[in-house]
Design brief:
The structure is a homodimer of 474-residue chains. By secondary structure, the first copy, chain A, is mainly α. Chain A folds into three domains: 150 residues, MgtE N-terminal fold (Alpha Horseshoe), CATH 1.25.60; 125 residues, CBS-domain (Roll); 171 residues, SLC41 divalent cation transporters, integral membrane domain (Tetracycline Repressor, domain 2, Orthogonal Bundle). Helix content of chain A is 66%, strand content 6%. Chain A has a three-stranded mixed β-sheet. The first copy, chain A, has a three-stranded mixed β-sheet with strand order 4-5-6. Chains A and B meet through helix 1, helix 3, helix 12, helix 13 and strand 4 of A and helix 1, helix 3, helix 12, helix 13 and strand 4 of B.
C-alpha cells in the first residue's frame, strides 16, 4: 500500500520563512526513507515515495543507489511516463548501466518521446549496432532528424541543437504568426517545439533574417509585420561550431536561444539556453578534473575503470619524480657532507610548486574564459613574474631565518633564501608561459600544464638549493 | 575621420563554411587594430572600430586594455547609449576602476538605465557614502527597488532577482492578458521587464499560484482562462535562498525563470536564467581558484594586491613544508648512513600527493554538485581506498624495481615499495574524508582540503619511507 504522506510534498513549493538550504536537506531525508524501504523490500512504499518526485530528482536518486537497488527502482519506473526525461538527465556512466538494464526496446521508446537534442545525446553514446536497432524502432521522421544530427562532429552545435524550430516567412504579420501558432498546437506533423523563447523570420531559401523574442511578439499589435519587430543583428551559430564556443557566445550575449545554420546558411535548428547551461557545466568540470589530474569525473565509474584512468596520470608523475631524484643524486656529495641540506631540501621545491600552481590556475582559467589575448599576454606574464619575485623575497627571508636558527648556520639560511627567490621567479614564469605555450600549440592547457610545471619547479628547486649549497657550504 | 570598413562587421553574422573558431580569432585581429589606433592617438579610428561592437565585447576590450588606454576609450564611450550595459558586464576589479574614472554622476546615470538586478550589482560594490550619492541621484521608484534588494543578504536570491515581473490575476483570460501586455508597452509607470519568459498568476494577496511560459500563452486561444494553462507546480524561490542553491534548482529543473517570494509568500521578483548562468560561472570559478590556492580570480588585480592575496596561502604552505622537514629530521641518522634514501625520499611523498589530489578533486566537485550524500558517501570512500590500494601496489612494484636496479639494493626497493602502498592508501582515505569532514563542519571543502591533504601525504610519505628504511636497512 502506498503511503502518500505529507512528507511527499517536501520537494515542491516549500519556501517558508527561515528555510536555509531546503534542496539538500530534503533530499537526504527522502533518500534515507527510500533506501530504508528498498532494504525492507517494501516496493509499494518505494513507489509511493518516488512517485511525486521531479524527474531530475529521480535521476539523482538512481545515480546514488547501488546497482541492485537501481535495478529494483527501474522495475518500478518501467511504465512511468517520465522515464524518457529521467534517462535523459542521468550521468553518462549510470545511463550506460540503465540502458543495459532497460533493454534496447525500452530505449527506443524513450528516444521516441524526447525532443531531438536530448534523443541524440542518448543515441550517440550507444554502440553502432545498438544505434541501428534503436533507430530502426522509431518513426522515420524522428529517425531522419537524429541521423542528421549524428552526422555532425561530436561536441558541435549540430549535436547540441534542437531540430524543432518556429519559423515564419518575412511577409507575415504578428496576427498571422499568432494564429498559425494557435492552430498548430495539435498538429503533430509540424514538429514544433513544446516550449520556445524566440521565433525566427526566414527568407524563401530558409536563411534566418531576424529573431523575435516571444515576449515581444506577445506585446505587439496584430497588424504589425514581423520584420518590423525582429532583431536583424542576431548571433548565428554555424552547425560545426564547437559547443564551448557556443557557450561563450550565449554567456557573452545573454542569449536564451540562437539559430543554427548549415554550410549554405540555411536554418537547421536552434540551440537553447538549458542545453548551454549543461555545456558550461561539462566544460568547467572537465577543466577542474584535468587540473586535478583526473581524466573525467569518475564518481559513478566502477573501481577498476577508475583505477586504470588514474594510473596513466600517476605513471607520468612517477617519471617526473624520478627525474627530480636524478637531479638530487647529482649532489650526492653535498648530501653526505651536510645532512641538514637533505632535511630542508623539500621546502624550496614545495613552495615553488605551490606558487606555480596559483599562477597556472589563474592563467588556465583566463585562457578558457578568453580573457587572455595577445593584447594583454605580455602584461600578465610580467605581472606574474613580479608577484613571484616579491613573494620570493618575502619567503626567502622567512625560510632563511628558520634554517639559520634551526641549524645555527647562517650560510645555510643564505643558501635556502637564494634558492627560494630563484624558484619562485621560475614558478611565476613557468606558471604563465606553460599554459600559453600549450594553448598556442592547440593543446588543452588544463591537461598537461601541472605536470610540466611541477617538474620544472621540482628540478629547479632541488638543483638551485643543492647546487648553491655545494658551492657555498662545502 | 572614421573608417567604417568591412572589417567592422566581423563580429556579426559571419558563420560561413569552414569557420573554425570565429569568436576568438576575430577578437584578436580587431583588438590589434584598436590597440594600434590607440597607440597612434587616432581617436576617430578607435571610435569607428568600437562603435559596431556588442556591449559585452566592449566590456572585454576594456578589461584587457592598460589603465591609460582604458581611460581614453571611456572618454570616447562617454555618451554611448550602451554604456550602462558595458559597465554592467565588466569584471569587478575593472569596474571599480571604471567607476572611479567615470565619476559618481555618470554612475547614477548608468544605474538609472539598468534593470533592477543589474543596477543592484553595481550599487552593492560601492562604498556606503558613494551608494547614498548614487541613490539620491536616481528617481524614487527605482531607488526604492534597489534599496529593497540591498536589504537582502549578499549572494541571496533577493540580490539576484529582477523586481520587474509580469503578473496577472487568477480570473483573467488569455485575451485579457495579451491586451494588457500590448497596451502596457509604452506605460513607464508599470515597470514591466523588457523581456520575459514566464508570466505569473497571482492570488489577490499577491501569492504566486502558477506560472505560464510565454510560448504557451501565445499558442492558446483568447477565451481560455490563464488558470487553465498555468503550471501550478512551480519551484518557488525564497528571497533569502543562497544563489548557489538557486543555480542548482535552475539546472535541475531546466528553468528559464522562477518566482521569488518574501517571508509572507508574496511574489517580490523573478530570477532569470541569464543571471543564473553568471552565478554558475562565479561559483565554479571560485572552486577552481580555491583548489589552486588562489583566493579569487586576480587576473585584472594590481600586482601588490595579487602578491598579498597569494601570500597567505603560501605562508600556510611554508608551515606545512617545515612540518614535513621536521619529520625528516627525525631520521637524520638514516640519512647520514644511506644517501640513496635522501635521493629517493621525494618520490613517495610526491606520488601520495598526486593520488590524493585526484581523489580530492572528484570528492570536492561531487559535494559541490550535490552528488555525494549520506546514501553513497561510505561507498565512495570505500571505492577510493580500493583504488588507492590497487594503484599503490602497481606503483610499489614500479618504484621498487627502479630503486632496486638504480642502487643495486633489493632492500631499498622493498622499503620504497612498502612505503608507496601505505602512502597511496592514506591518500585515498584522506582525499575523500577531508572534504567530507570540512563539509560536515560547514566549511567550504574547496578552500582548505588541499593543504590538509598534502600535509598528510608528505608527512606519511616521508615517515613511512624513512622509518621503514631505519628499521630494515640500518
Amino acid at each position: 500500500m502506498s503511503e502518500p504522506s505529507e512528507n511527499l510534498d517536501v520537494e515542491r513549493n516549500d519556501p517558508g520563512p527561515g528555510d536555509g538550504d531546503p534542496v539538500r536537506d530534503l533530499h537526504v531525508e527522502l533518500e534515507d526513507l527510500i533506501v530504508q524501504a528498498l532494504d525492507a523490500g517494501d516496493i509499494d512504499r518505494v513507489e509511493g515515495l518516488i512517485e511525486p518526485l521531479h524527474y531530475a530528482d529521480v535521476a539523482d536518486l538512481l545515480e546514488r543507489l547501488t546497482p541492485d537497488d537501481r535495478h529494483v527502482v527501474l522495475g518500478i519506473l518501467g511504465d512511468d511516463e517520465d522515464l524518457p526525461e529521467i534517462v535523459s538527465e542521468l550521468d553518462e556512466t549510470v545511463r550506460d548501466d540503465v540502458i543495459d538494464d532497460l533493454g534496447l526496446a525500452s530505449v527506443a521508446a524513450v528516444v521516441r518521446e524526447l525532443e531531438s537534442d536530448d534523443a541524440v545525446q542518448i543515441v550517440e553514446e550507444l554502440e553502432e549496432h545498438e544505434q541501428k536497432q534503436v533507430l530502426d524502432a522509431i518513426p522515420v521522421s524522428d529517425r531522419t532528424l537524429i541521423e542528421e544530427s549524428l552526422s555532425f562532429p561530436e561536441d558541435s552545435a549540430g549535436r547540441l541543437m534542437q531540430r524543432e524550430v518556429v519559423t515564419v516567412p518575412e511577409f507575415w504579420s504578428v496576427g498571422q504568426t499568432i494564429d498559425f501558432l494557435r492552430e498548430s498546437v495539435d498538429d503533430e506533423t509540424l514538429d514544433l517545439p513544446e516550449m520556445f523563447y524566440d521565433i525566427f523570420v526566414v527568407s524563401p531559401t530558409h536563411m534566418p533574417v531576424g529573431t523575435i523574442p516571444v515576449s515581444r511578439l506577445l506585446r505587439t499589435k496584430r497588424p504589425v509585420k514581423t520584420t518590423e519587430i525582429m532583431e536583424p543583428e542576431m548571433r548565428i551559430i554555424p552547425v560545426t561550431m564547437d559547443q564551448e564556443d557556443v557557450a561563450f557566445i550565449f554567456r557573452q550575449r545573454d542569449l536564451t536561444s540562437a539559430p543554427v545554420v548549415d554550410d549554405g546558411g540555411r536554418l537547421v535548428g536552434v540551440v537553447t539556453v538549458d542545453d548551454v547551461v549543461d555545456v558550461i557545466h561539462e566544460e568547467v568540470e572537465e577543466d577542474i578534473m584535468r587540473l586535478g589530474g583526473v581524466r573525467e569525473d569518475d564518481l559513478y565509474e566502477a573501481t577498476m575503470a577508475t583505477t586504470w584512468s588514474r594510473f596513466s596520470w600517476l605513471f607520468v608523475n612517477l617519471g617526473t619524480a624520478i627525474v627530480a631524484s636524478m637531479v638530487i643524486s647529482l649532489f650526492e656529495g653535498t648530501l653526505e657532507e651536510i645532512v641538514a641540506v637533505a632535511i630542508l631540501m623539500p621546502i624550496v621545491a614545495s613552495m615553488g610548486g605551490n606558487a606555480g600552481t596559483q599562477t597556472m590556475t589563474v592563467t588556465v582559467r583566463a585562457l578558457a574564459m578568453k580573457e587572455l589575448s595577445a593584447t594583454n599576454a605580455m602584461r600578465v606574464v610580467g605581472k606574474e613574474v613580479l608577484v613571484g619575485g616579491i613573494n620570493g623575497v618575502l619567503f626567502a627571508i622567512l625560510s632563511g631565518v628558520v634554517a639559520w636558527f634551526w641549524f645555527e648556520n647562517i650560510g645555510l639560511g643564505l643558501v635556502i633564501a637564494m634558492a627560494m627567490v630563484v624558484n619562485m621567479l621560475v614558478a611565476g614564469i613557468a606558471g604563465t608561459t606553460i599554459p600559453l605555450f600549450l594553448e598556442r600549440l592547440g593543446a588543452d592547457p588544463a591537461v598537461a600544464s601541472s605536470v610540466f610545471l611541477t617538474t620544472i619547479t621540482d628540478v629547479v628547486g632541488f638543483a638551485a638549493f643543492l647546487g648553491l649549497a655545494a658551492v657555498f657550504l662545502l
